[in-house]
Amino acid sequence: MEEAGHRGRRNKNAPVGTILLLMCMIVPAYFQPSEDKCPDGDYRTNKGICCNKCFPGSKLVEECNVTGHRSKCVPCPHGQYRDKIHYAPTCLPCSVCKGTKNEKTLKECARNQNTICQCYDGYYRFYIDSLTYECRKCAQCGPGETEKQNCTNLTNTVCECKETFYRVKRKCEPCESCSSECQHLCSRSSVNPKSCDKGEEFFTYVIAGVVAGALVLLVLVALITHMVTKKKWEQRSSQPSSQPTDDSPEPYEVVLLSSEESSVNSDVEVTRSSPVGSEQLPPNLPDCVPLEIETADLIYSVLDLVSALQVKQLVRTLGVRDTEIEQAELDHRTCREAHYQMLRLWAERVPRADGGGQRGILHWPLLQELLDKLRTMRLGGVAEELEIKFSIQ
């Protein structure tokens, strides 16, 4: 009984002894100072001693033997350097700038700094990897491009497309017809002369259509008046007496007035010609009286029939210089206004064969030249439309 009681008391004290043993093992280790903690600028040697590091421009010769003592450091030899605090026994070799690789020395090597190299002017540093690089020639912006960022010793030239240009297969192409590829360029607030605003063009076409309709109506009125006058002349000439009576119709002369400076007159001016006593009246008027054509009317008709991309080619074949074409594009907001100016320059530059004529009226040889150039450009359909509209035989 007594031995059994002793065993029970030993079993109850066993867990307490185990806990005390673990505490004796853990607490000293917890309060022991960490081996990684050395003063700033020092490092722990293999012997567990905290020694000082060497300053830039020197190398380690001998480590300290006791904590608090100083290690022995000596300056780097010529041609070598160390640019950071360290505890290495050697220095690094200085770099050499390669003149044959478009590189020059910006600053010579020192004990505490490596050689500083720089690419020649017109070259930039292209890194092959994080350490290796080579000096490459700066890129030049191509046609239709402008420099967004100049080339430096460290970065290449950065190019971007000019305004109203867009990139197609690494090239910048002009946006001239507002196609789907460059539609976004046509919506800019600053309209370029070479980009066509479709809204403005549509509005201009509507106005041109109304004006053209009014001109066609005017021509019809003039033709009807001419036919009525001709009929009266025929009736007058068929009478037996050559002297006019009070009831006989008097002859009329039809004159169609048109001028670029004055507004289009919708009426036909009829002037009476007083017959002279014994003079005989002409038996008949000619069957076809050629009508004079307004320069403005002809130009608008051409612009309605010829595409905007072909107008430039047409005016060049008519002798308008490229400088005048560019100036017209700069002076006018829309393509149609600029194209009108180009054709007007052609119509006013060529002198008239007879040395005279009313201003604003296109001379017939110029009209024939225009028709010939249209057919040369394989625009025979446009030439036929103009001949039908202006009754050209």
Which quaternary structure do these chains form?
Answer: single chain
- What's the CATH class of the domain at 197-237 and 252-271 and 288-393, please? Mainly Alpha
Structural class computed from helices and strand pairing: alpha+beta
User: In CATH, what is the homologous superfamily of the domain at 197-237 and 252-271 and 288-393?
Assistant: Death Domain, Fas
List the helices and strands and how they pair.
Elements: H1 2-31, E1 42-44, E2 50-52, E3 58-62, E4 72-75, E5 80-81, E6 92-93, E7 103-107, E8 116-119, E9 123-127, E10 133-137, E11 145-149, E12 158-161, E13 165-168, E14 171-174, H2 198-237, E15 252-255, E16 269-272, E17 293-294, H3 295-305, H4 308-317, H5 322-331, H6 335-349, E18 361-362, H7 364-376, H8 380-389
Antiparallel strand pairs: 1-2, 3-4, 5-6, 7-8, 9-10, 11-12, 13-14, 15-16, 17-18
Helix pairs in contact: 2-3, 3-6, 4-6, 5-6, 7-8
Describe the structure.
The chain is an alpha+beta fold and 393 residues long. Among the domains are: 42-93, Tumor Necrosis Factor Receptor, subunit A, domain 2 (Ribbon), CATH 2.10.50.10; 197-237 and 252-271 and 288-393, Death Domain, Fas (Orthogonal Bundle), CATH 1.10.533.10. The protein is built from eight helices and 18 strands. It has helices spanning 2-31, 198-237, 295-305, 308-317, 322-331, 335-349, 364-376, 380-389; strands at 42-44, 50-52, 58-62, 72-75, 80-81, 92-93, 103-107, 116-119, 123-127, 133-137, 145-149, 158-161, 165-168, 171-174, 252-255, 269-272, 293-294, 361-362. The strands form nine sheets. A two-stranded antiparallel ribbon has the order 1-2. A two-stranded antiparallel sheet has the order 3-4. Strands 5-6 form a two-stranded antiparallel sheet. 14% of the residues are buried. Mean pLDDT is 76; it is low at 29-33, 188-197, 241-290 and 352-357.
